[in-house]
Amino acid sequence: MLMRTDPFRELDRLTRQFLETPGTWSRPTAMPMDAYREGDEYVIALDIPGVSADSIDVDVERNMLTVRAERRPSRKADDVEVELSERPLGVFSRQVMLADTLDMERIDADYDAGVLTLRIPISERAKARRIPIGEGAAQKEIKG
Which residues of the chain have pLDDT under 70? Predict the structure, then answer.
């Protein structure tokens, strides 16, 4: 049996349980995200612990990246009596508008330890490059 020692945390949990509904496909819950540039890649890391890789969908349409995942309740035997259930269930989703400078054709996705990591290369046309400067046409001497 679990002992609860923080009455305010329990009140917060009960309030969320009664006021919030689990995410659905039409109204998903947001998932936490970090986004940063690492060298020549743009990296997006999303927390979705407890979700199997099979239930994660990553789609790109034009510049809109959409990530959806679903966490279902775990199956329990009939004689199990749940005393505490704080882990959110349902559908989670996040949409990110990507810049035109990213190469949407070469997105790499990896899911490890509950974190989905997307690596998006920065397109060649967006990388800084040096423009060579040519010298003007050779000067000709005009004879009269």
Answer: 1-28, 126-127, 136-144
- Enter the DSSP assignment of 121: E
Residue 71 is predicted with a pLDDT of 84
**What residues pair up with 119 in beta bridges, in sequence order?**
43, 108
Cβ 44 vs Cβ 117: under 8 Å: yes
Q: What is the pLDDT of residue 7?
A: 64
Which amino acid makes up residue 27? R
Pairing mode, if any, of strands 108-112 and 115-121? Answer: antiparallel
**First-to-last C-alpha distance (Å) of the chain:** 109
CB atoms within 10 A of CB 27: 11
User: What's the rounded Cα separation, in Å, for the pair 1 and 96?
Assistant: 42
Under DSSP, is residue 118 helix (H, G, I), strand (E, B) or coil? strand
Tell whether pTM > 0.85: no
Q: Which residues pair with 70 in a beta bridge?
A: 91
